[in-house]
Amino acid sequence: MPESSRRTKGKIRWSKLYTFTCLRPSTADFVHQEHLGQPGFSRVVLCNETQLHKTKPHKYPSNYVSTTKYNVVTFLPQSLFEQFRRVANLYFLLAAVLSVTSLAPFSPISLVAPLVFVIGISMLKEAVEDWHRFLQDLNVNSRTVKARVGNGRFADKKWRELSVGDVIKVHKNEYFPSDLLFLSSSYEDGICYVETMNLDGETNLKVKRCLEATLGMNEDEELSKFKGTVRCEDPNPNLYTFVGNLEFENESYALCPAQVLLRDSKLRNTDYIYGVVVFSGPDTKAVQNSTRSPSKRSRIEKKMDRVIYLLFSFLFLISLVTAIASAFFLKYEMLEWSYLRLQDDDNPLFNPSKPKVSGLLHFARALILYGYLIPISLYVSIEVVKVLQTMLINKDIEMYDEVTCKSVRARTSNLNEELGQVEIILSDKTGTLTRNEMEFRKCSIAGISYGGDMKEVDLAASRRMNTCAETCRSSIDESNTSQSFEFSELSEADIMVTEKAIPGGREDGENLSTENPEISTVGKESVIKGFNFRDDRLMNNRWIHRSNLYDVIMFFRVMALCHTGIPVEANQTDKLKYEAESPEEVAFLVASQEFAFQFFRRTQSVMVLKELDPSSGKVVEREYKILHLLEFSSSRKRMSVIVRNKGGQIFLFCKGADSIIFDRLAENGKSYQDSTALHLSNYAEDGFRTLAFAYRIIESAEYEHWNSIFSQAKTTIGPERDELLDKASEMIEKDLILLGAAAVEDKLQKGVPECIDKLAQAGLKIWLLTGDKKETAVNIGFSCSLLQQDMKQFHLCLSKEAETKIQVKAMKEDLLYQIESSYQVMCEECNKDSPFAMVVDGKALEVALTDGVKNQFLQLAVNCAFVICCRVSPKQKALITRLVKEYTGKTTLAIGDGANDVGMIQEAHIGIGISGMEGMQ
Q1: Which end of the chain has fewer CB within 10 Å, C or N?
Q2: Chain Cα centroid distance, residue 109
């Protein structure tokens, strides 16, 4: 059977295709096309004509990628240069040179041999490390991929043998060997799913799409005859831009990043794709971004340098004293010692007529003679110890993760001893302190809160209660122990939690009793990954008996349709697994599946749900045509999907931050706003992440009018495009009807509270840098023992955005007043035993890092045991780390697991990267 017949079927209208990125204009009237052929946009790729790329002017590098520091030619001179950058080695080189002269008081071997040994050991270490890098390069460059060979067929070809212009075929779960222009895929609608974890640290899948002109080419024979010319930008490190066009069959088609597959990204959930190599080897964007890590030197090394300088100064001093004394004795005393017969000796070292020359020569001889005052083995001894330490760290069984089958890897041996000098730790939250494995925990539907279970905050509180109880119990007289309560035997499984009294949180007539489903035992583990919900009112399809059934159905439908996820078949079960742009979306999809709204299939134009029909009690398939997907962004703080059902009704389903959704509600859509807002507040206090859900029904005439405006905005090319799209989205995302909200929990990593307790007892100060909102961050702080109930907390908050210079000035003054007031309180209570903590929200942090405020902010922050910074961007993480490092002068350690943590990891004295759910940058 030909491969084309096995392609994933999915009808599609290209005029209605709105994927997760930009929309392609139909021709090459792209605003940036005018740049092609000019400096910076001069690359020309001739598809399937690689022989033309072997000579100028279109000769480009091979696809071989090297990460080694040296090669056979450069190793000796370059490694020698690196060794003699050390002051001690340079001194002994000078001493060795002098030792071969007549000035040497002993054999040259005694100086030359140790120097050669020390330099040789260091160079051998460099060679071994570079050899390992070479073997790793060899392994990568020797990977194979299907590529067109000379006779027009596709066969295995090593990565290093690929050239610009080669047409290749990449199969599912394979990495792209070069930067490719996407030509076609196993999907009939010309899409593919790509994982870019190695590039940007994001684990979510991204959708790429090919040009309509190449969509139909899906056979090896067709692609082997493909002739086209790509004119595009020159190599650059920007991962998110691409400017170019494809000239094919006398037509020119504009290209955008959606048609480019980058090296080191991975093909997922797509059987195969065809692509043509555009950038190879060192020209690929991945390699262009692979800059060297900053060179970090430990305090021991820096102190060792200072000691060497001190010893050299002392050596210089005693040699100088020796030389002066020698010249003095030679001129005034040794002439009288006739038995020396100095007048008959022409030795310049003892020439009475030239005492100054003799003094200089004695000075040089003294430098050699006393040279062992500087230990020649100092550097090599320390390096050998560091290498042994690194080997022990890499083989430490206690730091092996059985889940990922990965062990610790010390990327450098220069910072081992620095771990014992750390005084300040700066940590990411998501994926570092928490697992970044979201669980659906609670929801509010039509003003009624559902779900109850012991959460991480409650578990932390119970642990603290047990600790306090144990302390109290130990103080009771032993004679009364028979009457005392054994608090230490209180386990998490014995603690019960009940729902908080929430006005409007229950339907009339519902009473809390011992049979209430919201009372849950703590010891239960979540049977289903991503779903830890306990409430018999909704579970096991009991939701069909709810009085507000329509709202319940619409709520579950929003969860099942408003997302960017795709289903993945599970093994030996009717349950599906999902992959989406965020763990929250996966949790919502798993939850909707448990509530009998299974997201079953997706194409570019259709989503299919398996829904439980309350009237018949049977599961039915319902198809929803995707009309538009309005993406989530940090500025919009919401996403929407517009769909049409079989009956022709058009729905807009929306989810987002509660403040954004509430502002867009219709007057008749606010029925549940007050109760939902209260539930959301309680969920946030519990440390949960929350989103609000809403919908609206759109009339056909209104949709057609809006669609023309949106389509025009989408096909606009230029800097105003995003603004026009946002304005168009605002036009349709209004008059919403609130359905409710959902809460997901990010579970703590194992042992986090105990670890933080021990670090705090050791006197280390901890900064938590998170992108979460303040309420969530504070409650995570309590759950992981960063914050305690008896701890004095300073909250720096600003309520409004600054739009004018006057408002900016007022905000600075407001924040400075808060800082000064907090500092006064700190000074007054500094003698108390309880530590201080500080919480800074996102708006206050932006102002705090500006000139005129940051010094006062840091003065307060560094005196707190714990600092929590909310709504922090990656750039702010790096800036905070740099400021803390420079302001305190203390050793800092940064730890994180995502690409957004790379900046602060590089800024800190010690950086620790975790292979986590956010990626492995």
Answers
A1: N
A2: 54
Inter-residue contact 691 to 659 (CB < 8 Å): no
Q: Indicate whether 177 pLDDT > 80.
A: yes
416 is in an annotated binding site: no
Is 632 assigned a ligand-binding role in the annotation? Answer: yes
Question: In the structure encoding, which two tokens stand for residue 513, read together?
Answer: 């009793």
663 as an active site residue: the answer is no
Residue 240 CA to residue 847 CA, distance in Å, equals 29
Residue 792 annotated as lining a ligand binding site: no
Burial grade of 492 (CB within 10 A; 0-12, 13-18, 19 or more): middle
> Residue 181 contacts by C-beta under 8 Å, 6 or more apart in sequence?
45, 230, 246, 255, 259, 260, 261, 275, 276, 278
- Residues 6+ away with beta carbon under 8 Å from 712: 724
Q: pTM (2 decimals)?
A: 0.63
pLDDT (mean) for 772-787: 80
CA-derived radius of gyration, the chain: 35
Q: Is 814 a known ligand-binding residue?
A: no
Give how far Cα 84 sits from Cα of 115, 340, 557, 676, Å.
11, 42, 69, 69
pLDDT of 357 reads 82
Instruction: Give the pLDDT confidence score for residue 875 in this predicted structure.
Output: 77
The mean pLDDT value for 227-246 works out to 87
- Shortest CA distance to 591 belongs to which of 436, 780, 451? 451
Cα separation, 189 vs 700, in Å, equals 26
Under a CB-based contact definition with an 8 Å cutoff, are residues 900 and 436 in contact?
no
Please tell me the least confidently modeled range out of 89-93, 280-284, 803-807.
Answer: 803-807
Question: Of the listed 166, 179, 283, 428, which one is catalytic?
Answer: 428
Integer Cα distance of 470 and 476 in angstroms: 10
Give the count of alpha carbons within 13 A of 516, CB side only. Answer: 17
Angle at 481 between CA 476 and CA 485, to 5 degrees: 90
Q: According to the annotation, is 686 in a ligand binding site?
A: no
Task: Tell whether residue 506 is among the known ligand binding residues.
Answer: no
Say if residue 29's pLDDT is above 80: no
Mean pLDDT of 392-412: 80
Q: How far is CA 146 from CA 64, 69, 159, 186, 215, in A?
A: 17, 31, 10, 15, 19
Among the ranges given (243-247, 326-330, 854-858), the one the predictor scored with the smallest mean pLDDT: 326-330
Give Cα separations from 831 to 452, 858, 864 (angstroms): 42, 21, 14
- DSSP run (H or E) holding 737: strand 737-748
pLDDT-based confidence at residue 856 (cuts at 50, 70, 90): very high
Question: Are the beta carbons of 609 and 624 closer than 8 angstroms?
Answer: yes
Domains and CATH numbers, the chain: 3-63+162-288 (2.70.150.10), 64-145 (no CATH), 379-415 (no CATH), 427-433+749-913 (3.40.50.1000), 436-452+499-506+517-631+659-692+736-745 (no CATH)
Ligand-binding site membership of 901 (annotated): yes
Higher pLDDT residue, 33 or 671? 671
Check: CB of residue 35 under 8 Å from CB of residue 628: no
Res 824 pLDDT > 50: yes
Question: Annotated binding residue at 428?
Answer: yes
Measured CA to CA in angstroms, residue 224 lies from 137, 218, 220, 221, 276 at distances of 29, 11, 6, 5, 11
Give the start-end residues of each E strand in 299-458: 400-401, 406-407, 422-428, 434-445, 448-450
pLDDT at 121 over 50: yes
CA angle 156, 255, 234 (to 5 degrees): 75
594 annotated binding-site participant: no
In terms of Cα–Cα distance, which of 514, 457, 542 is closest to 745?
Answer: 457
Q: Out of 240-254, 477-491, 616-630, 823-837, which region has the weakest mean confidence (pLDDT)?
A: 477-491
